[in-house]
Structure formats: structure tokens, C-alpha cells
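Changelog note: in this version the structure field was regenerated for every chain. One regenerated record is shown below for reference.
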Amino acid sequence: MKRVLTYGTYDLLHYGHIRLLKRAKELGDYLIVAISTDEFNAIKGKKAYHNYNTRKEMLEAIRYVDLVIPEKSWEQKRDDVEKYYVDVVCMGSDWKGNEKFEDLRDICEVVYLDRTEGISTTQIKRELGLQPAVDGIDQIPEN
């Protein structure tokens, strides 16, 4: 069985996410998705619209996803590959060349998938009129 692992926040789930997950699943037989916890997002200066449990539940409902695990730190990637016997780590092409993923090449294959043009979580937030980041922290209305 060929296992594939990808990482992300997967907030405001959209068509681009679904396409990425479908193409990731096509790289193997079993797809693991590590999603950033709310605490890790805070460290990265991000605030998701949906909390971790809601994002996890949404991802678990997608037929391409076999397992959802928490991403709690940048450093856990190597441990995840070993713990879950991962053969391929894949990410969106905007991560291409990033050492966080390139450093895994000695233990697994690393693949970058093209992003879906014309859609992104940032674009959706802008079009919905969500406030821009202040001091690097996304501002989500309290309502």
C-alpha cells in the first residue's frame, strides 16, 4: 500500500482544496491529511474561520481522505512520515523548494501539485469582506 501525506489548514474548504486532495489521493492508495491545530495556527500568525474540530470533521467527510491527524509543529513532519509509513509527501506548488519538505527527500518522495487557479482561501476571505491581517494575525469577525 502506497501512503501519501499532505499538510494544510483547510479553512473555508473550497474547490481548490478538493482538487488538491483528489490529486494527492491519485499518488497512492491511502491519503493522510495533517491539519494545523488552532494552537499551531496561532504560532504561524494565522486564525482559521473554523476551529480544528470542525475542519477535521469536514475533511473526514471527503471520500479521498483516509485519515486526518493534527499538525502541531513544523518539526513533526519527519516523525509523521516514519510513524505512518508514508511513501509520498505532497504539497501545493507554492511550497516548492521549501526546506521543511525538501529535507524529507532522504526518507520519502516529495511531490508538489499545481494550485487551482482562480481560487484561494485568501481570495474568499477578501471577497467575503473579512478583515485583513493586523500585525500578521488574520482578523475574523466575532459574530
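Spot check on this record: The longest helix spans residues 15-25. The longest strand covers residues 30-36.
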